[in-house]
Amino acid sequence: MKNMIDKFVDMCELISVNSNGQFFFDSVDVEFTEVYNDTDYPVLKEKMDKLIGLINEDNSLIEKDVQDELWLML
Amino acid sequence: MIKNWDAFLEARLSDIANLKGFDSKTKSDWGFDKDFDLSGNLVKIISTNKRIGGRKLQLRITYFDDTHHSIAERIRDRTNLKSVDEFNKILKDALNRLVEEKEEFLFDKKYAVYLKEYRFVIVFTLDYDLKELNIYTILPGSNVNNVRKIFVY
Questions:
Q1: CB–CB of A17/B27 below 8 Å?
Q2: For the segment B132-144, what is each residue's pLDDT rounded down to a tens digit?
Q3: Can you tell me the ipTM of this complex?
Q4: Partner of A23 at 20 to 30 A CA spacing, among A29, B50, B98, B134?
């Protein structure tokens, strides 16, 4: 059984950068991931939206560790 | 795809997300793999090798594209292919195999094909009545959920 952080790390695979240089979470394709049907998904999506906002403000955050650094900021 | 998270002592977000070519120091490099040729057009019609009534089955290809979702960019970001043209050839091969399947494709259900050699998934719908294949998205690796059936080639 995956914990919340593991699920969040899986979700991070769906972060991309558009041609304007803005980070975004692929809310279309998340439908095809395991986490989409998970009861934790609404909470995780909220955290993901917050992360996207943070990394668009400071893109150096993408060099940080998800589990040990970024998760604590969300 | 990272399967065993515990095996990694550190995993940067940039390593997990598919951020090919991203360079936080150079804005002009954002998000682009310099080796990927985006100039080609995604194929619009494919004539398959399958014959119905003596004529080759021809399918119109449509793509789930909008301002937030670009199939060409998904190919760039989630596969190791070098061009849209390369994808077109792979799609034609995959479609030729799909139309030989005994599966009765339901037009309103999504299906997936995992291409082992290239290690990515194409999510699609196939409507034989309209003779239309809609490419819904491209996913990295082999993991895909919430589809009716997964074909592996």
A1: no
A2: 999 999 998 898 9
A3: 0.80
A4: B134
